Amino acid sequence: MPKNPRIRFHQGEVHVDGWPADLPAPHGVRATGDRLVGPARLRWRLRAALADADVGYRDETCAVSIPAHIAHHDAAAPPPPGLATTLRGCGHRGVLIDHDERTHLAIARLLTELTQAPPLLLVPDTAAAHRVRSQLAAHTPANVQSIHRAAADMHWLGRRHDALLVDAPERMPSTLLDRALDQCAALARVGFASRVPPRDAERWCARLGPVVAVLASPSAPRCEQLHVPMPADAARQYEAAWSTFFAAFDRFVAARGEAGFGTFLAQARGDPLQRPALHAWHEAVRCAAWHEHKASLVDELLRHHAGRRVLLFTPDRACAYELSRAHLIPAITAELPRAERAAMLDAFADGTIRALAGPRLLDGGVAQHTADVGVLIGGGFGAAQRAARCQRVRPDGVVYELVSQDTLEVGRAHRWRPAAADAAAVVHER
Q: Does 103 lie in the same domain as 154?
C-alpha cells in the first residue's frame, strides 16, 4: 500500500490507491478491492475528505502547465466587483446567471491565473467555438470545444484541465452535458447560463455547483410579435396533418392520461402504428413555420431595415437557402465548410456583410449585441434558444417574431416569451 493515497485519472474516472481504512469513502465513490473508483467530477470531494482528515496525498490527475509568456498577460478586464470573492468562497464552483460575455472572459482569465493552466471551455456548437476562440485569443489561452466533441473525447481530455467553463448549458443536450461533466476532473468549474430550468437544477448543482451570482437582466431589444395568416393551401395541409396527429394523440392520452407530449413522441418513434402521427406532427410544424406569406413579410422587413445588420433565424436549412437565393444573403448552415462559415461570421461581426440567415449556428456564432435587427421566422426553438437569439441583437434594436395565425406557433410564442417581456403583439393582415 502506498504511503500516501494516490489520486489519478483513468478513462473518465478517478482512481484512488491507498485510501485509509478508517476513513469513510465520500458519497458517490465505490470500493473496488483496495481501490476507490468514482466519476472524475468527484475528485474535489476526495481531496476535501483527505484534507479534512489531515491525510497527505498525491494528486496525479492534472499536470498541464501554462506557457510562461501567457501566464502574465494582463490585457483582459477584471471580473465585476465581488464576483471573484464570491467564487473563491464557493471553491470556484457554481453557476452564474445573466452575465455578459465580457464577464465570461474575465472569469476565464481569473481561473487561468488560479490554476496556472489553460481552462477548458465548453460551448453549444462549432460556430460558438470559433467566436469564443477569437475573443479569447488576445487575452488568455483556452481549449474551446463544442459539447458534442467534448462528450466524445472527455475520457482522455478530462485530465488536462483544472478549470472548466460551460457557456449556455441550458442549450446543450442534457445527456452530452452530463457525460462531459462527469468525466472531467477539473476542480474549478463555472457555468454561464441565462436561466436555470427547474428540471435541471439538481443535475447542475451536482456537476457544476450551486447558483452563486445573479445579475439583473440587461436591457433587451424591443420585440414585436407579428401574426401572419397562412395561405389557403398551406392552411389545408396544416389542418390535415394536425387532425392526423390529434387522432393518435387523443387515443394515447385516453390510455395513459398521466403521460405527456414528450412521452408520446418517444413512444411514437419506436412504434410503426404511431409513426404516421409523428410524421404528421412534423408536417404541421413545417407548414406553420414557413410559407409564402412569411416570405413576403421577410421581404418587407429587409427593405424596411436596409443598411442595418440583420439576422434571419430560419426554421430549417431549406428556408435559409431560399432566403439566400431570393435576397443574396449568405446562409450559415452545417453543410457549409467550416473555414467559409467562420469567414462569413467574421465578416458580419466587422460589418462587411449586413445580413445572415441560418437555422441554428447563428445562435452562438454571432457575439451578443452585434445585430441591429433579428427576425425569428419559426420552427422548434424553445425558451432557451429564443433567449439566445434575442441576445444577438443590440438593446436598442428590434426583434420580430413571425407567428402563423391559428396554429401551434401562437401557444409556443406565449410559452417561450419571458413573463416580464415588454413586447407588442401586432396582427399583420394580408
A: yes
Is 271 within the bounds of a domain? yes
Q: Which residues pair with 423 in a beta bridge?
A: 223
What's the pLDDT score for residue 146? Answer: 95
The verdict on 309 and 338 lying in the same domain is yes
| Domain presence at residue 406 | yes
Residues 159 and 97 in one domain: yes
- Give me the number of domains the chain comprises: 4
- What pLDDT digit, counting tens, does each position of 220-279 carry? 888 999 999 999 999 999 999 999 988 888 888 888 877 777 888 888 888 888 888 889
pLDDT confidence bin for 41, thresholds 50/70/90: very high
Distance from first CA to last CA of the chain, Å, rounded?
Answer: 81
* Residue pointed to by grid coordinates 421581404: 299
pTM, to two decimals: 0.82
Which CATH number does the domain housing residue 82 bear?
A: 3.40.50.300
